[in-house]
Amino acid sequence: MVLGPKPEAGSVFVVDVFRGTGSRRDRAMEPLYQQTHKQVHEIQSHMGRLETSDKESVHLVENEIQARIDQIFSSLERLEILSSKEPPNKRQNAKLRVDQLKYDVQHLQTALRNFQHRRYAREQQERQREELLARTFTTNGTQKKILDIANTLGLSNTVMRLIEKRAFQDKYLMIGGMLLTCVIMFLVVQYLT
């Protein structure tokens, strides 16, 4: 029974028996649901920050989002327990709401993994490109060193030009050989099928 203020003399006093309806569980579930729902929307806004983050801070943003997703999953476990303890007439609706939140969080988790995968692939391509450029420069540097050594050994400029011309011709021979091999492979495949 809920007691209100003392009635004045001659007035009618009605006790509000409906005030405070709803179980403690209902009152515990609703704020937790609202808080979790709010966190899901915050993560969605943070996902936009991932695309605009620079290379140094993207890891921090990813870790922050992952920590928030993990926190939401623990809240969802609690919400599932609370929804199963709801009165039968509210249980179905409560479970649907929790399932919808769970679906949203799983979608966010998948989006984060996809972003990380794309970032890792992009970083791998950049590393490979850098290695290739470094290897090309190393080859050019090696050629210059060989030419310098040949000059110090007393080879004439004519011999040096012949060596450079031969390297140039060898490159075209290699490309021609590769093309000829591809044509032969194509003809073999055509002939066998």
From TrEMBL:
Q: Which residues cross the membrane?
A: 172-192
* Location(s) in or outside the cell: Golgi apparatus, cis-Golgi network membrane
Q: What GO molecular-function term can you cite, just one?
A: SNAP receptor activity
- Annotated signal sequence is none
Q: Name one GO biological process term.
A: protein transport
Q: Can you list the GO cellular component terms from the UniProt entry?
A: endoplasmic reticulum membrane; ER to Golgi transport vesicle membrane; Golgi apparatus; late endosome membrane; SNARE complex
- InterPro entries associated with the record: GOSR2/Membrin/Bos1, v-SNARE_N_sf
Entry annotated with the keyword Coiled coil: yes
Primary subcellular site in the record, as a coarse category: Golgi
Tell me the keywords, alphabetical order. Coiled coil, Golgi apparatus, Membrane, Protein transport, Transmembrane, Transmembrane helix, Transport
Domain of life according to the entry: Eukaryota
Q: Which family does it belong to?
A: Belongs to the GOSR2 family.
Q: What does this protein do?
A: Involved in transport of proteins from the cis/medial-Golgi to the trans-Golgi network.
Record-given protein name: Golgi SNAP receptor complex member 2
Gene source species: Sarcophilus harrisii (Tasmanian devil)
Q: Which gene holds the coding sequence for this protein? A: GOSR2
